[in-house]
Amino acid sequence: MLATDPARLVRGSWFVAKMKRPTSGKPKHNQEPRTTNHEPASCVIAVRVIPRAGRSGVAGARGDALLVRLNAAPVDGAANAELIDLLAETLGVSKRAIEIVSGARSRQKKVRVTGLTLDETNSRLKAQNSSNT
Q1: How many helices (H) and strands (E) does the chain have?
Q2: What is the side-by-side strand order in the sheet with 42-50?
Q3: N or C: which end of the chain has fewer CB within 10 A?
Q4: What is the rounded CA–CA span in Å between residue 114 and residue 34?
Q5: Whole-angstrom Cα distance, residue 54 to residue 70?
Q6: Lowest mean pLDDT: which of 31-35, 47-51, 97-101, 127-131?
Q7: Which run of H or of E encompasses 50?
Q8: 84 by DSSP, 3-state: which?
Q9: What is the pLDDT of residues 109-119, one digit of tens each?
Q10: Residue, of 42 and 18, whose pLDDT is higher
Q11: CA 94 to CA 87: how far, in whole Å?
Q12: pTM
């Protein structure tokens, strides 16, 4: 089969098809099987933010979202930065483990917490809420 075969001229891939060398399907000795990348435990929680509050803190739940009051104004990402700081401190994880997945410019946000499962996140939030009351 020639490299210029019309069946191989899909989207200019004739060069790639020409350069590919046939490989045997046999596994090599002492070669570990490939594994997929395992992501650490993570969960996504819904958060309702109230900016410009008197003081920052977790204020319970509103509907199915976590209610968080923030002292910062929603200007230049200050409220998002404070939200990440507050959740990291409350949940006992690093700031790097908190990521705003959606709603960066909205009061309704979805936040991913890496390193904790949903059950662990709920238990830490309940423990923090009971210690504040």
Answers
A1: 3, 5
A2: 57-62, 65-69, 42-50, 108-114, 98-102
A3: C
A4: 24
A5: 8
A6: 31-35
A7: strand 42-50
A8: helix
A9: 999 999 999 99
A10: 42
A11: 9
A12: 0.69
